[in-house]
From TrEMBL:
GO terms for cellular component: acetolactate synthase complex
Leading EC class: transferase
All copies of domain Thiamine pyrophosphate enzyme central, residue ranges: 191-316
Annotated source species: Micromonospora globbae
Name of the protein in question: Acetolactate synthase
Glycosyltransferase among keywords: no
Cofactor: thiamine diphosphate
Superkingdom assignment: Bacteria
InterPro entries in the cross-refs: DHS-like_NAD/FAD-binding_dom, THDP-binding, Thiamin_PyroP_enz_cen_dom, Thiamin_PyroP_enz_TPP-bd_dom, TPP_enz, TPP_enzyme_TPP-bd
Gene Ontology BP terms: isoleucine biosynthetic process; L-valine biosynthetic process
Domain Thiamine pyrophosphate enzyme TPP-binding, chain residue ranges per copy: 377-524
Domain Thiamine pyrophosphate enzyme N-terminal TPP-binding: 8-120
Keyword terms, alphabetized: Thiamine pyrophosphate, Transferase
Amino acid sequence: MQRIEGHGGELALAALRAYGVREMFTLSGGHVFPLYDAAHRNDFPIYDVRHEQSAVFAAEAVAKLQRRPGLAVLTAGPGVTNGISGLTSAYFNASPVLVLGGRAPAFRWGSGSLQEMDHLPLVAPVTKHAETVFSTDDIPRAVNAALTTALTPHRGPVFLDFPLETVFSVTDADLPAPPGIAPVEPDPDEVARAARLVAAAERPVIIAGSDVYAGDATAALREAAEALQVPVFTNGMGRGSLPPEHPLAFAKARRAALSGADVVVVVGTPLDFRLNFGDFGDAKVVHVVDAPSQRAGHVQPAAAPAGDLRLILSALADHPGDRVDHAGWIADLRAAEDAAKARDAEEMAAETDPIRPARVYGELRKVLARDAITIGDGGDFVSYAGRYLEPAQPGTWLDPGPYGCLGTGMGYAMGARVSHPDRQICVLMGDGAAGFSLMDVESLVRQKLPVVIVVGNNGIWGLEKHPMRAMYGYDVAADLQPELRYDQVVTALGGAGETVAKSADLGPALQRAFDAGVPYLVNVITDPADAYPRSSNLA
Ligand SMILES: Cc1ncc(C[n+]2csc(CCOP(=O)(O)OP(=O)(O)O)c2C)c(N)n1
Ligand SMILES: [Mg+2]
């Protein structure tokens, strides 16, 4: 325990630093000036944005990619309320984000100060912990405790706000050391039951999700898959857990796998709409979760070990008993996978004009490095990205997750660029999605954070227009201006870009984008008739 002195901002910063927080994302407001003062005088980087939701999304990208806390500082009232979609996304994604909010003074609460409102009832349902810190010398404790909560599985966002006088006052206080988070031991009987089910299965499948990456369990996942010879599919941040060339890595044969499997092992992701709510026909379900709170209430899995994912997966790998040979099953799935890959390859080479989204991804795959970070923000255009891009390593794919919030684009891009200054950062954006965050290109330009933005410009809210037409025979509120020059928006904001309408021009345009060194938008005019094929077209 160390004794420190300063105003509330300095006390908060000392606690944040002790926990490995390395930057803040914010949009200015007087209520939080002491946090800026502390950062400014201690060489702590401040990145500012044009809408608070971008600040929270940027913090979330840091948290997701680097598996450490991401910090957003939001001013009182509208600053906080503008950040709520970001907080909610972080809650759905189990991302360890800390939002520090300003707050009207406590000493005259009720007298009608500017932006006087209690944030807690708004943020409590979408955070693991939300608290107002009323005493300056309590700030280091509160920050330390909040970050511990955020990082303890099942992870998630936390919120603190500081009344004006709390953060502006000077005092001395204890600075607690971060406690270290002990791995939670799973129940060995439950793990053994899971291992026996997988080992005895004829046609098992593993689906690995975001908590596998968040829990640093990708190596253990690979060990378990190899030891038990189980094909692996992934979603969310789990993508890239196995390199695409690994004999057990699968992506396209999902339908064959899930309809043919007799045991489905879902690791580190909820049994939600993305996984047919955990209903895989006759297959038994093993649900491996990082905390008991994550066990599904709507499904009765055959086994559901809860605890540190590394420990559970290593225990599966070490299963001492006999196991069924899965070579035939794996070969069948490989044949389905290869056939689907061949079809995809044809689509990705399509010479059509107007351009089909598949071709955009065909060209992107030629220029993306293995460690490139790809970010999806949009509807159908992003569904195509999920299908045609194959992340080669973990921690390189950012999608919005099950909250499905449009508008993550520039915030995630900022967090990714700050996390990985030397990698390619590529945002795949619908033209509709572009409307939510494109103004934050200004923030990226001004703070010298180059990224590439590829817009799939179909002139519509595609993922809504096509289903609405299918349902009603007409559509409303689903059109955008066709062929709008989103590249000129970026140019006006100090970046650069170009519009591409012919397939043959895509490759050179993408090359220019990655060479540009400033935010660069490739505005690809795509075919509005192109609808992403899905069994249920509602999202
Ligand atoms: C904040 C928010 N508002 C609305 C939606 C509903 N929604 C989901 S996809 C979509 C259409 C996206 O259109 P666009 O970004 O142009 O991508 P496209 O489907 O055309 O490829 C909409 C409006 C949402 N998911 N999030
Ligand atoms: Mg669109």
